[in-house]
Amino acid sequence: MLLDETADSLDLARLGADCVWALQQANPSIQLQSVVARVVTGITHCQATPSDATNLGWGFVKAQGHLVVVIQGVERPGHASNYVEALNEEINFNLDGGCNTYLISQAERIRFALLNLGVLRTARIVVFGHSMGGAVACDLAHTFRYQGDAPSISVITYGAPRPGPDSFAALIQPIDLVRWMTSLDSVPLIPPRQNQAPSWFAVAPQVARLNANRYVHPSGGIVVHLDGTAADRDVPEIAFEDIQASISIWLYTCYLGVNSIHSIPAYIIALRERAALPSQQRPKIDGSGSPETPVERNHSGVIDRAVKQHLNTIRAQAVAQDAVPLRIPEQWIVRATKVAGTWGVYWNGVLIAIGPQKGRCRRIAHSLNLALRRLQQFGFVGADDLATTFQQYLEAAKTNGSGFEPTMRSD
């Protein structure tokens, strides 16, 4: 049986990726049950719980002494921000080996639900987790083991971030864990080391800098390429070449709504290609490497120099820009002008607002000019995003009962 301990790890990984994908479809309970029913009969329980503002979505299937738990990744901003906020806390090494407290809260929530449903205490538990759900899966498996919920526990993750310090990695070392990562996926590099992404930490609390260097991956890492080739690795080697750029690209794809680099379909494709390789081109890889090594000192000279250099660059740009008077092109200056006895605000000669008083029109014109000049002082301005966002704001302001009152012209 595919869910047994003797099952091929690649086949089990492909099943897990399909389970995660099932949770992202309409009618996730039915979809998840359909996937697991391919490999086991006698299903007695199946349930899927969608995500909410703070909690990750997850589901489970119980059948023939097996419990399959599937945890989704980040779907809402609150999920990621809770992980980051926990990074700003002092590590409590007495609490699950110092694991990120947001991950602990999610693991406890899931186990408590399973306990109330009476589906724990089984022969074998298999936990699948994608992205943040993979990091939660690691702590959930530790909790299962600590509570004696099953004599056999396996965990397979896909693109999971670092869950905690090396003390947590040591705590889950006895658990059968395989961490799959595609070579371009930058999420396993989160949180980045301070010296690898100095600009990210220029304004971060000191405790966050220290924790980011302490967080490591447990053993079990496998990097798979989209052509199916794979190797034992701590982190994706291609994304590692430029960590800051890789993470930024991933965040941008999330913003665009495509997110193909980190998505579970990318893992489904890579694992499918690996399974299609001839056996001689597919040597057995089990992720048997050692846990990742933490950065021992946060205040090393290299890190401090990198941060200082970044801050000095910002200051130098500000000084250089302040030295040259910033002027708005004459035709684009906002002016308060009286025409036919009525005061109005004109931008590039176009009337943009009619005011009841001279003073109010002059104040708004001055404020707009000041905002334009100050905007020029930034080293980078997202002009397209600025225009799009402002347009969306103006559209929202046309709605009755909100925005501009009493009227807003929309020619």
Looking at the overall shape, the CATH architecture of the largest domain is: 3-Layer(aba) Sandwich
Q: How big a fraction of the residues is strand? A: 15-25%
Widest beta sheet: strand line-up: 1-2-3-4-5-6-7-8
Number of helices: 13
Number of domains: 2
CATH superfamily of the largest domain: Alpha/Beta hydrolase fold, catalytic domain
Order of helices and strands: HHEEEHHEHEHEHEEHHHHEEEHH
Q: Write down how many β-strands occur, each being a DSSP E stretch of 2 or more residues.
A: 11
**Overall pLDDT metric:** 82
CATH fold name of the largest domain: Rossmann fold
What distance separates the N and C termini?
67 Å
The major beta sheet can be summarized as: 8 strands, mixed
Note poorly predicted spans.
297-304
Rg from C-alpha positions?
27 Å
Helix content range of the residues, please?
Answer: 40-55%
What is the class of the largest domain in the CATH system? Alpha Beta
Alpha-beta content class: alpha/beta
Shape annotation: elongated
Characteristic terms for this protein:
11 strands, 13 helices, alpha/beta, single chain, 2 domains, 3-stranded antiparallel sheet, elongated, Rossmann fold, 411 residues, 8-stranded mixed sheet
